[in-house]
Amino acid sequence: MSSLADFVNLSLAPFSWRRDLGDRLRSGESPAAAILEALAPADAEGQLTLERLPALGRRALDRAERDGAMPVTWADPAYPPALKHIYDPPPLLWLKGVPAVLARPMVAIVGARAASPSALAVAEQFAGDLAAQGIVVVSGMARGVDSAAHGGALAAGGATVAILGSGVDVVYPPEHAPLAASIAGSGALVSELAPGTRPLQWFFPLRNRIISGLSRAVVVIEAGRKSGSLITARCALEQGRDVLAVPGNVLGGRNQGGHALLRDGAKIVESADDILDELNFGQECAAVNPRRGSAASEEQLPSREGRVTDPILACLVPGELFDIEAIAARSGLDPAQLLPRLVKLELDGRVQRAGGGRFIRLDRSC
Question: Which end of the chain is more exposed for a tag (fewer CB within 10 A), N or C?
Answer without folding.
Answer: N
